[in-house]
Amino acid sequence: MSHNAYITDERIEGDDEGPLAGRTVAVKDNISTDGVRTTCGSAMLDDYVPPYDATVVQRLKSAGATITGKTNMDEFGMGTTTETSAFGPTENPAAPGHVPGGSSGGSAAAVAAGEADFALGTDTGGSVRCPAAFCGVVGIKPTYGLVSRYGLIAYANSLEQIGPIAPSVEEAAELLEVIAGPDEHDATTRDPAAEGADTDYAAAADGDVAGMEIGIPTELVEGADEQVVETFWDAIDDLEAQGASYHEVDLPSVEHAVEAYYVIAMSEASSNLARFDGVRYGPSPDYEGNWNEEFAGVREEGFGEEVKRRILLGTYALSAGYHDKYYKKAQDARAWVKQDFDEALSEADVLASPTMPVPPMEMGESLDDPLTMYLADANTTPVNLANLPAISVPAGETDDGLPVGMQLVGPAFGETEMIRAGSALA
Ligand code: GLN
């Protein structure tokens, strides 16, 4: 376990039988595990032990899986490199000296290093797809509402989904089948099968892209690192050689997606993280009579820099007098992004772009520059704003051997097409 992929190394045995019997799954440490410490990568939850399992964990157990442990992550999911964790950074097993991506970096690293057969991550603005791309493995961000968030410690609940990470598209799809589907504990879940959608995800990994139409949003390719762009086009050529065709599409709204995403994510975070006050959650203060000071002290000590920055900005964006200027504008941009994607997908089966505009950064390189780090989410955040499904599959490597991922986006609850396209590549 040399890459610091795990925060807590504790095995949780599942049932004896089931589709995942004998197989192992690493679980991101913001997903609740009954009786096993769940920290969200934060000193605030250093000794927090949930009294119940998240729905996805229950489903893993009844599918027969063994959970290998709880994986490292950016604190509360806030980051793109797994360096904001209070438990130290994770190293990328596929690119030593480089970050594994984030925020589910521990999960992707565990799979890339062969320490687990599969992993679960969470994707609020790219946190499954980014580490999958950086570590040379496959990651799926499901349609909003396909996978239950019950027992997921919320960062920005209108954006996030739990998603699978695996060495191959077929295995990622197999894990998606186990965790997907309606849950009475999460009223935002839907039953796509009942609405006529194809939910045989693993069977869709048949590599048959003959006749498939791929839309390529120019805005998500332009401006990316040169070698990333080259690797991306080689992979598109590969799909074309297998019978797919492509055309370029415009998504003018995505220019505003990163801004809108961060306003919405930080606003939701400022509200979701209010519960970490030393009374409801977090270490109890030695109460000496001044409630405000005690409360502030717990938060001052328990949260890292990035989390504090986001709580402050989110609180500001929601405050009286500024709400219309920031939050409402971001919601308008979100609606526009959704509409752009719907239009583009009306003339394509899937949309393709590089998952990340840059190859994995060197460790320590981006920590002092939050804005550059936020901009690295340019291609992934629009998909969360639009509530759509997306997959990241390995597309190749740069000249220096750094992994490059291709992102394929499908229509809502149309996971099968992007799985099919991805399986033709990997
Ligand atoms: N990098 C993005 C952020 O920091 C995405 C995080 C995520 O998907 N959890 O918000």
Q: What class would the helix/strand composition place it in?
A: alpha/beta
Approximate strand percentage? 5-15%
Q: What's the CATH C level? A: Alpha Beta
Helices and strands, in N-to-C order?
EEHEHEHEEHEHEHHHHEHHEEH
User: Low-confidence stretches at least 5 residues in length (pLDDT < 50)?
Assistant: none
* Distinct compounds present: glutamine
CATH topology: Amidase signature (AS) enzymes
CATH H-level superfamily title: Amidase signature (AS) domain
Catalytic activity: L-glutamyl-tRNA(Gln) + L-glutamine + ATP + H2O = L-glutaminyl-tRNA(Gln) + L-glutamate + ADP + phosphate + H(+)
Active site: 28 (charge relay system), 103 (charge relay system), 127 (acyl-ester intermediate)
Family: Belongs to the amidase family. GatA subfamily.
InterPro entries: Amidase, Amidase_CS, Amidase_dom, AS_sf, GatA
List the SSEs and their pairings.
Layout: E1 6-8, E2 24-28, H1 55-62, E3 66-71, H2 105-112, E4 118-123, H3 129-135, E5 138-141, E6 161-166, H4 169-179, E7 213-217, H5 226-241, E8 245-249, H6 257-272, H7 291-302, H8 305-318, H9 324-345, E9 350-354, H10 370-375, H11 381-385, E10 390-397, E11 403-409, H12 415-425
Parallel strand pairs: 2-3, 2-4, 7-8, 7-9
Antiparallel strand pairs: 1-3, 4-6, 5-6, 5-10, 9-11, 10-11
Describe the structure.
The protein is an alpha/beta fold and 426 residues long. It has a single domain (2-253, 335-423), classed as Alpha-Beta Complex (Amidase signature (AS) enzymes), CATH 3.90.1300.10. It is built from 12 helices and 11 strands. It has helices at 55-62, 105-112, 129-135, 169-179, 226-241, 257-272, 291-302, 305-318, 324-345, 370-375, 381-385, 415-425, and strands at 6-8, 24-28, 66-71, 118-123, 138-141, 161-166, 213-217, 245-249, 350-354, 390-397, 403-409. Strands 1-3-2-4-6-5-10-11-9-7-8 form an 11-stranded mixed β-sheet, sandwiched between helices. Strand 10 and strand 11 (403-409) form a beta hairpin. Helix 6 crosses helix 8 (305-318) and helix 6 packs across helix 9 (324-345). The two termini are 26 Å apart. The relative contact order is 0.15. The mean pLDDT is 96. Bound molecules: glutamine. Glutamine binds at residues 77-80, 103, 122-127, 155, 265, 377.
